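re: that chain from earlier
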Amino acid sequence: MRAKSGFIPTFMQNSGTLGRASYLYVKFNALSTPWFGLPSFALFASGLGILGLLLFGTGSSGCTSKPDGVEAVVDSAAELLRLNAQIEAQPQNPDAWFARSRYFARNQLFDKASNDANQALSIDSLRADIWLHLADLSFTTKKVEDAAMQIEKALAIEPEGADANLRMAELQYYLGKYPETFKHLDVVIRQNPYQPRAYFTKGMAFKEMGDTGLAISSFQTATEQDPGYFHAWIQLGQLHAAKRSDLAILYFKNAIDVNPSKQESYYALAYYYQQTGRVTEAMSTYLQLLELDPQHVPSMHNLGFLLLFEKNKADEALVWFDKALNLDPEFIQAQYHRGFCLEFLGQKSEARQAYQAALALDPQMALAQQGLTRVQGK
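^ sequence. v structure.
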C-alpha cells in the first residue's frame, strides 16, 4: 500500500522564491494532512467518506449536502440511556445495536462503536449498510485491510450498491489501482449520474495519473452537480494555479464563497497572488486569513517575506517574523528570514543569533550557513 501525499499542488511543493531568496514558506496547513493523520468520524458523518480521510484530515467535508467542518456530536447522557433501554428491550434487533454504534461513533468511541456494529451483524449479517459503517470505523482507526474486507462483504450483498461501490472506488484510489477505481465509479454513475462525490474521486484518480485535462473535467462536473463542493473548487484552483492560469483566482474565490470559514482557500489564493507577482493582493488576502485565524503562522511568515523582499521594509517584516516565531519557535524559515532582516538592518549580533537558531534546527541549511559567515565577517 502507498499513502497519498496530501493535496498540496505541484506549484506549492517546490519552495518558489519570486526570484529573490529561497526557503519561501509554503506549508499548506490542513491541506497537507497525510492519510495516517487519521481523523475523526465526522468525515464519514459529513458524507466525504474514505477519500476525505485520505486528503483532508479532520473536520472537512466535500459537499454542501452535509455541513462543512462537521464536529463530532456529543450526545446527551439521556440519549445513551434511551439506546441502552432499546437494546435491553430488543436484544435481537440489529437496528438497536446499529443505532448505539452510530451514537458511539459520533462521540469518537470507536471500539465501542465497532463492538456494537459487530453485534448487529451477528444478528443479521446481510446488512450492507452496517458492513459499510463498520468499514468507515476501520478506516478511521487505521485498519485498512479490515475496511477492505468489510466493503467486500457489502458488495457481496449488493453488487450494484452505489454506496458500497463508491467506498470501494475510494479504497482502490488509495491503493493506486486506478482501473479498479474507475470500474466501481462507473457503477455509481450508472445508477446516479448526478453523484458529485463520484466525479470528485474520478478527478483525484486522473490527477494522480497525471491527466490534468480529465482531472479538471471531472472536478468541473462535480461542481456542476454540487456548486457547493468546496474541495472540488480547491482542486480546480490548484490545477490551474500549477499552470499559472488566472482561472485559479476564480476557483479559489468560489471556494471562499462556498465556505468563508475555511483557511485553505484564502491561503491558496494569497499564495497564487504571491507566486504571480501580485504583492498587494497577496498581502491583503493573508491579512484576511489572519482575521479569520489570528494564529495562522504561515500567513505571518509570508507577509514578512513580502515586506522584506518586495517592499524593502525590513523593520516591518521583522515584526511578522517575530510573531510567527512566538507561536512556532521551530519555524526554520522564519528564523532564517529574521536573521536576514536583522542583517539588513545592521544588527549583526542579533542576526548571528537568528542564523544560529536556524542552524540548530537544520545544520545543513545552506542559506543560514552563508548568512552566519557574512555576519561573522569570514
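Confidence is low (pLDDT under 50) at residues 1-48, 53-74.
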